[in-house]
Amino acid sequence: MTRVLVADDHPIFRDGLAMLLASVDGIEVLGTAADGAEAVAKALQLRPDVVVMDVQMPSLNGVEATRRLAAEAPGIGIVVLTMSEDDGTVFAAIRAGARGYLVKGAEQEEIVRAITTVASGGAVFGATLALRIAEFFTAGPAVRTEAFPQLTAREREILDLLASGRSNQQIADTLFLSPKTVRNNVSNVFAKLQVADRSEAIVRAREAGLGR
Hints:
The chain is α/β, with parallel strands linked by helices. The protein has two domains: 2-138, 3-Layer(aba) Sandwich (Rossmann fold); 147-207, Orthogonal Bundle (Arc Repressor Mutant, subunit A). It is built from ten helices and five strands. Strands 2-1-3-4-5 form a five-stranded parallel beta sheet, sandwiched between helices. β4 (77-82), α4 (87-96) and β5 form a beta-alpha-beta unit. α2 packs parallel to α3, α7 crosses α9 and α7 (153-163) packs across α10 (198-207).
């Protein structure tokens, strides 16, 4: 029996997926979580074989939740199931410790196969994502030089300082800008990178080599 925890902040999707998985022979759903912090707490308490983890969640995003579980409970497999096919999100999840990555809308059989594969120690990233991962590593480091072309020079500079762990006030002091200007630029960065919060932006930036 494969024991599963489902973490997603959308109740309809979360409960629907939990019910779907509970109906599958060989899978036991131990519970659900509505955000990343709850996912980490419940996973450490219930010790499932696999956590099905959304990326965009409040309190603690799925990438950071995955990173914490990989550090504190490496025996728990993580399957990321999300709407995002963005390369930065994919590679951030993999670097954080996810062993499966599927987009929402995947067939039931594909989700179940990913869960059972990860539970047995394997890795699953879906056909499309697997191809892009292969292309990324085939292309080599040059891919990183074109990271975030949608950002202005100022926004990239601020993202670099953000990734180094500096607060808005410290960034303002470093660049001789007003805190309001920094806040506006940070908001623009979040919007352009399509990230939910500061921690996810930092993950994306560090994956691209910023903040070092």
